[in-house]
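All the exercises in this workshop are built on plain-text protein records. Sequence and backbone structure share a record, each on its own labelled line. The question running through the whole workshop is how a given chain folds. The record below serves as our worked example for the rest of this section.
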Amino acid sequence: MTSRDSEATLQIAATQPSQYDSKISPYVERPVRRIFTADYKRRILQEAEAGPPGTTGALLRREGLYSSHLTTWREQRARGELAGLTAQKRGPKPDPFAVERGQLRKAIVQLQAELEQARTIIEVQKKVAQLLGLLPMQRTAPPGESGDEI
């Protein structure tokens, strides 16, 4: 083989994509998570428990499952037949008190507005009473400046 032949071979090899070359397919399909229904889980657990000893491995291979699936499903079944075997939503759980907290915050804002309105009304009533002579006139001084303290 001459140097020209080796160069040609290198060029051909460089142009042919390798099966591991990421430039072949820019889109790589993500695996799809399998979702097992409660009925499927019950059926597999019944088959695993009803079969003779030693056949569980064949069942798992046939269904493409792991022994940890059976363990998890048995624990779920022990917690509650229907609720335990239904699929659980992944991710953070919603806060059950979020709605109540929102309602309480709205109530607090509303009550603070009502309180401010009531204070304004009381101040107006005090001023009207002072003008009519029902209350003695009071000098309004900031706290600590009354001169009473020595």
Summary: Residues 8-14 have pLDDT under 50 and may be disordered. DSSP finds six helices and no strands in the chain. The helical segments are 3-15, 38-50, 56-63, 67-79, 81-85, 98-132.
